[in-house]
Amino acid sequence: xxxxxxxxxxxxxxxxxxxxxxxxxxxxxxxxxxxxxxxxxxxxxxxxxxxxxxxxxxxxxxxxxxxxxxxxxxxxxxxxxxxxxxxxxxxxxxxxxxxxxxxxxxxxxxxxxxxxxxxxxxxxxxxxxxxxxxxxxxxxxxxxxxxxxxxxxxxxxxxxxxxxxxxxxxxxxxxxxxxxxxxxxxxxxxxxxxxxxxxxxxxxxxxxxxxxxxxxxxxxxxxxxxxxxxxxxxxxxxxxxxxxxxxxxxxxxxxxxxxxxxxxxxxxxxxxxxxxxxxxxxxxxxxxxxxxxxxxxxxxxxxxxxxxxxxxxxxxxxxxxxxxxxxxxxxxxxxxxxxxxxxxxxxxxxxxxxxxxxxxxxxxxxxxxxxxxxxxxxxxxxxxxxxxxxxxxxxxxxxxxxxxxxxxxxxxxxxxxxxxxxxxxxxxxxxxxxxxxxxxxxxxxxxxxxxxxxxxxxxxxxxxxx
Length: 466
Hints:
By secondary structure, this protein is mostly helical. The chain is 48% helix and 8% strand. The chain has 19 helices and ten strands. The chain has helices spanning 6-24, 26-48, 96-104, 116-129, 139-147, 155-171, 174-184, 194-202, 211-220, 233-249, 255-263, 266-269, 282-296, 298-303, 314-330, 383-392, 427-432, 436-446, 448-457, and strands at residues 64-67, 73-77, 83-84, 186-188, 191-192, 306-309, 341-344, 351-355, 401-404, 423-426. The strands form four sheets. It has a three-stranded mixed sheet with strand order 2-1-6, covered by helices on one side. α5 (139-147) packs across α6 (155-171) and α16 crosses α19.
C-alpha cells in the first residue's frame, strides 16, 4: 500500500494555511467588504447630490442672476466681473463645440467617463518627471473638477474625480455633459462658457464664430492666463493652429477649410472687452442691486448666489431701447444726444421696460448715469393728468379743438421742439403728439389747482407748485 511522502503533505498544508485562515474568518471578512461597499455607496450618493443640472442656468458663487417676468436672463451680475451666457448645445453653433473637443478631448464620444490611454500617458509623464504635471482628464472629469472639486492635484483628488465622473456619465448623456462643460469652462477675461467668450473676445454670438475664431477660443482653455492674447498672442496663435489640426483629425474641418482658417487674421478680429458690462437692461439691474442692498445688506449681495425674478419684459425692453435710439437719431439735428424711457403697467405699477440712457457704454453722453432716476421736471409725463382732470370735469372731450400755435399765457410762451405749431387740432391729436401749447391751454381751462389735486389723488407724492 503506497502512501504520500510526509514532505509533500507538509508543503500542501503550508499552502492551505492562508486559505484556511481566511475561511475561518469569512464572516468578519464579508462584513468588512459589505461595510466598505456601503461606505462607497454612501460616499457616491453624497457626492453626486451636487452634480450639475443641465436644465439649470449656470450660477457661480458670488453671482446675482436677474430674470425678467418670463424667466429670461437679463444679466448675470458678479462683483468679481464673472460673465456667463448660458446656451444650449445647438445655440453654440457648429464650430465651437467641435473646436473644444479637438482641443481637450478628441475621443469624447468614444470612451467612458475615464480614458485609460490618456490616464496612462499622464501617469507616465508624472512618474518620469517626478511630479503631477500632466492632466489626462476627459471632459467629463474636467466638468467634475470645475463644478465640484478644488484644482488641487493629488491621488485622493484623482480618485474622487473618477468616481464622480462615472456617476455623471451614468446620469447624463454625452451631449448634456458637453453642453454643461461648454457653459462652465473658463476662457479668460472673466468669461465663463463659450457664449460669454464669443462676446468677450469677438463681440458676437457663439453660433456666428468662424472656424478660426472657434479654434482660437478653444485653445485658451488649457491655460487662459498663459495664452492671454493681450500678453502672449503668439502662444495663443500656436494653440489655435494645434486646434485647427485637431479639427481636421476629427473630421470637423476639411483640409481646405483648415487652410482657410489658418490664414484668417484672427488678431485683427479681436475686440476684447476685459471689463465690458453684459446686460440687456443695465440701468434696471443697477436699480435692482440697490434694492437688494437696502433689503439684505451689501455683504449678502457680494456673497451672491441670488436669483431675482422681476416684472421687466425683455420683449418690451428691446422695443423701448430701439425707440430711444430712433428718437435720439431723429433729433440729432436739434443737438439731442440722449434720452430715457420707463414703461410701467398703469394698473399695477409694475415696470416693463427701463432705459436709463441712449447708450450705457457711451462716456461722451454720461451713458451710465440713469436719467430715469435723475430729479427733473416731469415734462410731458404730466400731461395725462392735465387731460384727465379736464375730461372728468367735462371741460373738454377728445374732439375739442385746441390751438397749437405760439400763444402768450400771461407772460409764459411755451414752445415745442420744432418751434412751430400744428394749428387747430383735436385734443386727441394734441396728446398723441404730446404738443406743449395745447396742454397749457387745457390746464388753464381746467385750473391748475384741480390738476394738482387729481395728481396727488392718483398717487403723486411730490410737492407740485402751481
